Amino acid sequence: MEQEPEWVESTGADGAVVLSANGPWTIGAVSTLDRRIKAVPLNGAQIAELDLSGITKLDTAGAWLLYRTRRDLLADGIDTRLKGLDTRYEPLLDLVEQADLAHPEIERVRPNALLSLLDRVGKSVCDAAEEGVNLLNFLGLTIVTMLRVIAKPRRMRVVSLVNQIEQTGLNAMGIVGLLLFLIGVVLAFQSAEQLRKFAAEILTADGLAILVLREIGVLIAAILIAGRSGSAFTAEIGMMKVNEEIDALRTTGVDPIEVLVLPRINALLLTLPLLTFFANVAALTGGTIMSVATLDVTYTQFVRQLADAMTLKNFIVGMVKAPVFAFLIGLVGCYEGLQVGGSAESIGRLTTKSVVESIVLVILADATFSIVFSYLGI
Amino acid sequence: MESDVVIKVRGLRTQFGAQVIHDKLDLDIHRGQVVGVVGGSGTGKSVLLRTILGLNTPREGEIEVLGEDARRTADTVQQRTGVLFQNGALFSSLTVAENIQVPMREHLDLSRDLMDELAALKISMVGLPPDAGPKFPSELSGGMRKRAGLARALSLDPEILFLDEPTAGLDPIGAAAFDNLIAELQKGLGLTVFMVTHDLDSLSAICDSIAVLVDKRVRLGTMSEHMKDSHPWIQSYFHGPRARAALASRLVT
Fold first, then answer.
1. Does residue A30 sit at the B interface (CB-CB below 8 Å)?
2. Where in chain A is the domain with CATH 3.30.750.24?
3. Alpha helices in chain A (DSSP H)
4. Cα(A237)–Cα(A257) distance, rounded to whole angstroms?
């Protein structure tokens, strides 16, 4: 049975307080010992003797308690002597002493809560403004590079463009198709419920066509692509940044904007309009199936009504937005990827930021389009 | 009472797919030894370390750490061992001081003040400046991260310390200081140290035996014993210009 760690007070021969440490002074016991040490009163003592001969085991945590006790006693003006410490533990006590002397107590200044809140708010506003400026800069850089590549089409990276088209377009078709189909089902169901009250169920087709073609198709497709491809852009480019691959490209004389950013943005510019068209088809199919199944209309009736509402104008209003959204998503995704710092930790943070930023920008752009179109009376 | 052997490996076989890394590997490490593990690239130095720690499951063989089977990651063993991973492996969402306190919080019931004192003590012991405590790992340099990782490994005053390339990526002065620190702690605490390293200076300065991984097994011996070994890889390792320089510097000091 192992001995219990102890800290015992007694009176020595010359009126000194004798404090004896017994048993294992290790990290498992320091919690108890700390309380014991603080509980022993030393009122009026002039001399203290620490008898350490009973210590059976010592580690840095125990040594710290011994050292701290002696230091505090000395600071209180009590003459303190150590006695009986096993010689093999002496280096440990020295180690702890050196460590403590190397680090004088530092005063930790706790900042005013209100001030630090103000500080944080100010900082985040400035950061956001700076981010906006940087993004504009990056936009300019991308456009200049794009024009340069158009002037010299041989510099176009066809292989990576095709690769990106596959990843951002072809591979996204499943999820875009499924989600838009379901959204079409939900839209038809909800509007039919309301229109039934006016016995105008057939107008479900008009509502569906206008909503899907003008807004829902392109918006949902863009948000899905922002989450799917925008985040992938940031993570891929960020990982390359961490591996210093971007620096390697630069030192070999290859422009990273040209080989990494342009193929991605161009791929999105091509695929998002196509995906939008596909999304429209999926949503309208879903809406039609739902309406025919639940409403009192025949398939022919519904499709005729739908075809009347699907004007070219509505279709174009939706499609015009697609390349703009694609550009925003690609730009933000690549920009945030290039912002990744030296460590892998920032990849996660910036990927999240990239998705949030591109979705916010997409919706802002969509709102702007709506305002502009209503002014133009389209 | 457990025996003097703190790490015991018998008939270890590790394999990834068809690639056999270790085969019939035996190893005994005694209490208080400082063992350096060396070997060419891909000979499975880090794999051996991870296997002993129970992070890899071996295909065959027995591993005992402090008398317990390594495959059952026993709580008591984890409290008595400390690990410094190659890049520190600090928890990025916690400050350095909080990182050091993680093992204390998990295994012990200490008061906040005492944990703060002990964390400050460890930070100072590993040679970090006092203001490193409230910093996050991302604010530290590579060398400082290693030191912080060591401070966390030492948090519970372990009996065995596992180090994965502790001096890689440090400047020579920092590396020498790190070696000194480990040697000092080893003497003060009676630690057993299991160290994967390529640094010949640390091998000659602080290791009292060297485990060489060749032919899927381990050859354990002192530096002078290895110098006499006729195996070609060991020959070229311990007789290369770098080895000679490291040895010469030890003879001078």
1. yes
2. 6-102
3. 30-39, 60-75, 90-102, 113-151, 158-168, 173-196, 204-211, 217-225, 231-242, 245-251, 256, 262-294, 299-309, 312-338, 345-376
4. 11
| The pLDDT of residue A280 is above 90 | yes
- C-beta atoms of B138 and A345 within 8 A: yes
Q: Which of residues 115-174 of B touch A (CB under 8 A)?
A: 117-118, 120-125, 130-131, 134, 138, 154, 156-157
- For residue B104, give the chain A residue with the closest CA: A27
Angstrom distances, CA of residue A196 to CA of A199, A202, B37, B67? 5, 9, 79, 77
Q: Could B184 and A64 be called an inter-chain contact, meaning their C-beta atoms sit closer than 8 Å?
A: no
Lowest-confidence segment of A69-73, A243-247, A341-345, B122-126 by average pLDDT:
A341-345
For A229, other C-beta atoms within 10 Å of its C-beta total 26
* pLDDT value at residue B1: 37
Q: What ranges do the domains of chain B cover?
A: 33-59+77-226
**What's the mean pLDDT in B225-235?**
81
- The ipTM is 0.75
Q: Does B110 touch chain A (CB under 8 A)?
A: yes
What is the mean predicted confidence (pLDDT) over B208-229? 82
Q: Is B185 within 8 Å of chain A by CB?
A: yes
User: Cα distance from A47 to chain B (closest Cα, Å)?
Assistant: 26
| Cβ of residue A61 closer than 8 Å to a chain B Cβ | yes
CATH topology of domain B33-59+77-226: Rossmann fold (3.40.50)
Q: How confident is the model at residue A13 (pLDDT cuts 50, 70, 90)?
A: low
CB contact under 8 A, B117 and A68: yes
DSSP A50: E
| Chain A residues 291-350 within an 8 A CB cutoff of chain B | 343, 345-346
Q: Which CATH class is domain A6-102?
A: alpha beta
* pTM attached to this predicted model: 0.70
